[in-house]
């Protein structure tokens, strides 16, 4: 990047020069090219050793010590067709400097290169063996320019766009999406000719559609029609344009939905024109849609730098990463020399200007402030939009002049703009908005503070790319063929220059390697002119980045003056990386001693020494079988210091199982996987890993790991599990291939060839994901990577979850979907079962399992298993009667096996969480939901299968039960193992096997009573009480616990157990149960359900409680009897109250009222009879109730005093002069007398202590001060009555007479008042 501009050679000079001066190629021999036979088909072009040495060999991929982390990584070579075309150019010694152009389409991952009169297109993500290259012939009249005697091939004159017909692609990061239908739009920069191929993947070769610019268009006049090549030849315009003519500098294209492979392309020119090309299968319509008129925008004086031409329009870019018109419109940006314009393209191809915003002006907050000291001119060069369409990055060059020295220099920067929050411009705006739409996302990021001054051709050849790793980095491509990665790191900008030796040619384009994970960036990918595709790992950018130097980073050095020492001071590296020159010489400048940043490489020198020692000791063991002193040596070397994946022993084990085979090549595809090479290699790995385990055991390292590093030892043994699993998976793949060859093994005739690819597709997905995540593997086959990366076997389940829609496509026939699902199910079950079996066979090798989670219990594995299980459930619902019952049975079998391994995975994960003391509630909920879903579906399918067999065989009931029993055997075991109580209950009920039910109840004793509790609950809900109580004979304790919340049955079970005292308490509580409590006492525990008991039922339960209490013969039986009798009397009082009060009977009905509510009801009624019943209720409650409700008792006495007219009684006694006998007779009929007799009389009955303890009858101290104190007696209550001053003597006489006399003997004896 940033090299001095290369001056264009004259026509005569180009005829004499064979090679460009800045790209020295290997001289070509006179008779033949190197590596080319004299006869036969030309061999692919072989790169020079300087480039070939940079390509990592297969056996060095896993040896980090031999790979320079700051170097780019070779991804893949050109297809053979491209190499042959390049060799042909050299062989024919074509005159002039042959310039090759190319590019990468990020949305489709397609790469294109133009050589001579052909454009080659291929998918760079495809492995070498399956790489399909499309070669399209460019029309001769467009590809050859010059005079009649000499033709010069200039391939840098084209702009190319890829148009996908497969739908909308969001910067394709999905490994399953490969474009199968693509169109190509090409536009000549100078002649403005347009070439359009509607479909490049069609079987039949078709001529492209072409359109040429008219003479009026080339003269600057807008046209709206189609022009032929003959017309251009007559006007002499093809290849010879006027000096003031503006060339195209940017091209974008998008498909038009549902239009029959029509697309629209937009191109902008340096002269300020925006053209639209409507490309169809038969014709291309061209139209000028925008013209940048003369702008008054000025950037000061251009002294010292002359612009050859003014480039008004710089770049185009879609706002959305989509490659088709989504919805009804699509927005695009246009970068001019001082602003950004946003346009809207409608489906009818009408274009409207939405808004524009100046980015170079007087306000620095809106972009770049002009006319600063030393600034002479500002050039926005290129524009890129992020995937979300919200962030815009602009590459800017600023021409400056030092005011002190007078020297001129160029400053390169990145301007990042984003949409302001809350601002929304309607897509159909007619008038352009002048509101500020964008704002700075970050300050202007300076890439190069002082670079050499370039001419305008060099500046406007620069291109910008964004979106790769590290996050926020950008790539700047320059016209001299260099690429520089800019990354803001640790508060400063770092630059990494992609640089290869000269024989690699120039960098043609850069893009981002599609990531397999959503919302993740990929590594940068670079297309070179002669050395194929290269990737720049994130680690290389961070480790190899330098601070921006004050000179240009180019092949030819800088024109700025300065000493080497000054340059060295300016080049400050990240961390402790030694300084180096950012040029091609840096690769051989002895920088292998470069240190590694902390945080990027976590291995220390001690780790490397320990790993080397372990490898040496293990190799000695393989040769001699001896392990003398190995444990002590490794302990001294610190081999036991690290835990987990970084442990030395774990790394050694991983190296064994992940080694790439040296004899595997990329020149074979599926045939390689079909051979025995894979199986042999896997068996060799297994034998070596077993030897490694023997080494650990014999050297006592196993004991050390088991005691100190259990997790590390488990990982090592899990490598063995995965290796055994992938070997069995390989055998499964072999059987599928054999069945496909023989045409057997499929219930659907003719479908095996279509269905056999499911497992193969999954292998391809996993391998492709590994290749993209590890760019060192990009030149390897997907299958080779899959069968080599054994330690990453869980990636099978990740890809299965994420790509299930691709693996089992709903667009396929149902029979094919079922077969593909079967293959995936078999693969998953095979892997997990093999791992479990390996663990079972070698269980004595494993460390104590407490708190350790097996790899097949991790979330990624569980989610993958659930994904294919959900697919099987969906297929079960889709299966109709036209599908044979054998297919349904096979689906049932596969789903049953999947359910078993999935639930085992959940059980292991939950157990580990419990042992570690972690929260497991969320995991338990997920486990229960998925378990119930699977078991319920399996049960329903089992019933349907049994019914279908019965119908087919027309058998009797006995045979039907036998069929059902055979089908349910395995499901019964799974449900029993994982507490699927509903399924167990359903099977036993359908079989009508009470004995089986009892056996399962004995075996399944989980929390809360286990299966027995579930059975009790089901029987109770179904009101099968006889069966429920009968189970109590064999499960007495379990049923007793269950019936604690069901008192209506609990007492029966207690009577059966001869627990009469408990039965009495249960019956007593049942009789008085009401909304959470007893009438007399509070009950503990869960209350019984609402039984809607009538008062007669409650009386019956109380009587039964008395009988049980008598039968129990407990020491406290007498107290129980009294309490029961008291509650019976309260029930009787409620019945009497309801008989006396019709309103109460209607409102209360059979509801049992608490004593307090019943007393309040009596007081509310105002009836003398009911008030007296309130005193009776108080009498039969407990003393604690009377104390707690003392205020309510006082209210009863007040109401009793109000029932008689004491004023009239006093007046009558005074006027008539009552005798003692007459007074006694009259007072005997008052309510106070009767209440006193019931509460304090000689015949008064109460439960526990009497009323005297709560509320005494008389107030002993009659001093006035007592009246101010709280009421403490019946007398004090009466003293507050309004008639007490006059009739107080009669009131007190009434309560005194009532307390000493009954209603019978009240006439005998003297008056108490006397």
TrEMBL record:
Region (Disordered): 1-45, 213-235, 547-571
Pfam family, one: Nucleoporin_C
InterPro entries attached to this UniProt entry: Nucleoporin_Nup133/Nup155_C (IPR007187), Nucleoporin_Nup133/Nup155_N (IPR014908), Nup133-like (IPR037624), WD40/YVTN_repeat-like_dom_sf (IPR015943)
Residue ranges constituting the Nucleoporin Nup133/Nup155-like N-terminal domain according to the UniProt record: 70-534
GO biological process: poly(A)+ mRNA export from nucleus; protein import into nucleus; transcription-dependent tethering of RNA polymerase II gene DNA at nuclear periphery
GO molecular function, one term: structural constituent of nuclear pore
Annotated localization: Nucleus envelope
Domain Nucleoporin Nup133/Nup155-like C-terminal residue range list: 1010-1139
Alphabetical list of Gene3D superfamilies matching this protein: 1.20.58.1380, YVTN repeat-like/Quinoprotein amine dehydrogenase
Top-rank taxon: Eukaryota
Keywords on record: mRNA transport, Nucleus, Protein transport, Translocation, Transport
Example of a GO cellular component annotation carried by this entry: nuclear pore outer ring
Family of the protein in this entry: Belongs to the nucleoporin Nup133 family.
Protein name as annotated: Nuclear pore complex protein NUP133
Organism: Rhodamnia argentea
Gene name for this UniProt entry: LOC115747541
